[in-house]
Amino acid sequence: MTKRNGLSKDLKALLFLIAFIALFCVFAIPMGLGNALNTLMNTAYELLIGTVFKIMAIAVIAGALSNLLTDFGVVGLLNKLLSPLMKPLFGMPGASALGIVSTYLSDNPAILTLVDNKQFRRYFKAYQVPALTNLGTAFGMGLIVTSFTLSLGSKLGGRVWLAAVCGNLGAVVGAIISTRMMLLFMRRHFDREAPALPDEEIEADEQKKAEKPKGFLHVLTALLEGGENGVKMGLGIIPGVLIICTLVLMLTNGPAASGTYTGAAFEGIGLLPWLAGKLSAVLKPLFGFSSGEALAVPATALGSAGAALGIIDRYAEAGLISVGDLSVFTAICMCWSGYLSTHVSMMDVLGCRRHTGKAIISHTVGGLFAGIAAHWLFELMQLLL
Q1: 323: which residues sit within 8 A by CB, 6+ positions away?
Q2: Helices 160-187 & 142-151, crossing angle to 10 degrees?
Q3: Which of 44, 113, 167, 359 has its CA 20 to 30 A from that of 345?
Q4: CB 185 within 8 A of CB 362
Q5: Angle at CA 241, nearest 5°, toward 237 and 247?
Q6: What is the DSSP secondary-structure string of 171-192?
Q7: Cα(304)–Cα(145) distance, rounded to whole angstroms?
Q8: 3-state class of 304 per DSSP?
Q9: Rounded to the nearest 10 degrees, what angle do helices 53-71 and 216-236 cross at?
Q10: Strands, DSSP E only, in 269-331?
Q11: CA 144 → CA 55, 104, 164, 305, 316, distances in Å?
């Protein structure tokens, strides 16, 4: 038995080594070994400096504001007022609307600081907490994406406002589907009546809240405590963002503008857009794209919505996309918003790492339906207006 176990371990190690070398060759052969390693390190560094610290700053501000809102009962009020809307649509309590607002105004991880707040978490059941990753991601960078869409009016015509509206509505459709799918998965793993926060923790938190100073000191304490939680969240997502996002970006992006590899940050082999092109016979009719090149945008949005916006700008300059395409881009860039790069780290911070695959599957489906809904909504509105 010992010998058999030893052989099994050796075989496992050998298979892993073969798979690891094969994955490394995928990058090293087209890019060159030196360039692949330099791009790997440079991309991780740029993500740390330009992305992670920005997310941490967002998390600190969002944490401070969310703690202030919960301490003064605003979240409780929102839960009462918005539950009749949020429960039928998303299957979530009304308090989750605050997560939509926070991520729409900033980025996906902003919802983590809310979840870490016990005054917010008390309104949820245990099975609903993992679905907050899907709900928040579906609206991540919403304001940035919408503003970018509206800025293309000089290149694509005055009806970009209609593309922005239909894109946002499409993202809502995608959010509903993604969140509902995730809730269906989670009901199989959690007791539907189990609270996200046990009664004893709620009581302890209430006692802690009663002991806080009053007046201005209460405000200041709430802000500082919330900001401290934001720092913890920002640190918690570093491994996931640097590892997963680096890999996804290298699979998404192509060589430098010169067409050659230099080892600079954010270069890659363009595998995901290539795969999307192979599926163009299916995807193009669903989204109504005016050119095959447009498929590169949703493929890039899998890893980075910001990178996808850069592609949209170049395609608009070259006349490769229409206003109708823009509605689909808006929906997908908002709903997906680089979820392959952030879902792993977000689920890890929530303590739900084993359910990451289900969250990704749910959000993949939700993003596809977001694009389809935006396309047909735009076509319908074109006929009516």
Answers
A1: 156, 157, 159, 160, 162, 163, 378
A2: 160
A3: 167
A4: yes
A5: 155
A6: HHHHHHHHHHHHHHHHHTTS-T
A7: 12
A8: coil
A9: 140
A10: none
A11: 14, 8, 11, 10, 18
CA distances from 318 to 312, 315, 333, 370 (A): 10, 5, 20, 26
Residue 377 near residue 327, CB atoms below 8 Å: yes
For residue 163, the one-letter residue type is A
Mean pLDDT of 160-166: 94
Tally the residues of the chain. 385
Q: How far is Cα 276 from Cα 278, in angstroms, rounded to an integer?
A: 5
The gap between the terminal CA atoms of the chain, to the nearest Å, is 75
Task: Please tell me the distance from the alpha carbon of residue 117 to that of residue 205, in angstroms, as a whole number.
Answer: 10
Which residue type occupies 325?
D
Residue 243's identity, in one-letter code, is I
Q: What is the identity of the amino acid at 118?
A: K
Most confident of 13-17, 78-82, 373-377: 373-377
Q: In this structure, are residues 32 and 261 in contact, taking their beta carbons and an 8 Å threshold? A: yes
Q: Is the confidence at residue 136, as pLDDT, over 60?
A: yes
For residues 126-147, b (16+ Cβ closer than 10 Å) or e, as one string?
A: bbbbbbbbbbbbbbbbbebbbe
Ramachandran region, residue 141 (left: φ > 0; alpha: ψ -120 to 50; beta: rest): left
| Amino acid occupying residue 313 | D
Residue type, 364: T
Q: What is the pLDDT of residue 166?
A: 96
Which residue did the predictor score with more confidence, 87 or 77? 87
Q: What amino acid is encoded at 220 in this protein?
A: L
In angstroms, the CA 288 to CA 290 distance is 6
Residue type, 55: I
Distance CA 231, CA 222 (A): 14
Are 19 and 262 spatial neighbours (Cβ–Cβ below 8 Å)?
Answer: no
Contact 253, 266 (CB under 8 A): yes
